[in-house]
Write a structure and sequence with these properties.
5 strands; alpha+beta; 86 residues
């Protein structure tokens, strides 16, 4: 059985944050984090909060100094990135 990667989508605010990232090192670090999340959407830690909507998760890579807040769609095919910190 082959596992498919989840597709990455960005909220409007995350897309604006992405536009402001110009450093090659930051882009590379973010790319690595997004690959990890697309391969394993459960890689991040759940953020406690309201259980009415999708579970917000946080993936942090201390080595690359990247933090991504995201949620996974019900069918686990799309990861929606809500916030990026590089």
């Amino acid at each position: 059985m082959s596992l498919r990667r989840a597709r990455i989508a960005f909220s409007d605010s995350a897309a604006k944050q992405l536009e402001n990232i110009t450093s090659e090192a930051e882009i590379h670090a973010l790319d690595r984090a997004l690959v990890v999340i697309s391969v394993d959407p459960e890689a991040g830690e759940p953020i406690p909060g309201d259980t009415a909507g999708p579970q917000l998760r946080q993936y942090t890579d201390e080595l690359e100094a990247v933090r991504v807040l995201y949620f996974v769609t019900a069918l686990r095919t799309v990861v929606v990135v809500a916030y990026i910190e590089v």
